[in-house]
Amino acid sequence: MLENRELAGHLDHLLQRLTVSTQRQKSDFAEKLGISRQQFEVLTIIFEKGQITMGELCKEISSACSTATDLADKLERAGYVERIREKRDRRIVRLNILPKGEKLVKSVIETRTERLESILESFEQEDGMRIIGILETLSDKYERLSRKE
């Protein structure tokens, strides 16, 4: 039986493999759509969170505000997002996803869901549910631990 330290190391390796595979997949999708992976990630964040300020976006993507501004500029020019200035404080600018951006994100989500569905078909339903439950628990605990640091 493996010790917890060995299990943790193996789990870390598997999570890294999944991360690399997911990032590669995102890059492939983005390239096919004519945008960068970073632009796609920004669209996904806005799709999931709704309107977001530029400051919030900088934190979400862990980048300098100049990088977030450049990404927002490109997405705005392509017609995926719009900037909305707050009426009370014109210094605050929010990014809002437009229907064209929503359509793009939804199409990628649909493709990824189909891929995962084909993988899950190779498992018994009970095993698939157990995998999801374990990943949810792992994700929750990892996020809580990250917030403490």
Task: Kindly summarize this structure in a few lines.
This protein is mostly helical and 149 residues long.
Can you tell me about this structure?
The protein is mostly helical. The protein has a single domain (4-148), classed as Winged helix-like DNA-binding domain superfamily/Winged helix DNA-binding domain (Arc Repressor Mutant, subunit A), CATH 1.10.10. Helices cover 74% and strands 8% of the residues. It is built from six helices and three strands. The protein has a three-stranded antiparallel sheet with strand order 1-3-2. Helix 1 (4-33) packs across helix 2 (37-49), helix 2 packs across helix 4 (65-77) and helix 3 packs across helix 4. It is globular, with a radius of gyration of 19 Å. The two termini are 31 Å apart. 13% of the residues are buried. The mean pLDDT is 92.
Describe the secondary structure blueprint for this structure.
Layout: H1 4-33, H2 37-49, E1 52-53, H3 54-61, H4 65-77, E2 81-85, E3 93-97, H5 99-120, H6 125-148
Antiparallel strand pairs: 1-3, 2-3
Helix pairs in contact: 1-2, 2-4, 3-4
* Proportion of beta-strand residues: 5-15%
Number of helices: 6
Q: Give the strand tally.
A: 3
> Could you name the CATH homologous superfamily?
Winged helix-like DNA-binding domain superfamily/Winged helix DNA-binding domain
Distance between the termini: 31 Å
Low-confidence stretches: none
Percent helix range: over 70%
CATH architecture: Orthogonal Bundle
**CATH topology type:** Arc Repressor Mutant, subunit A
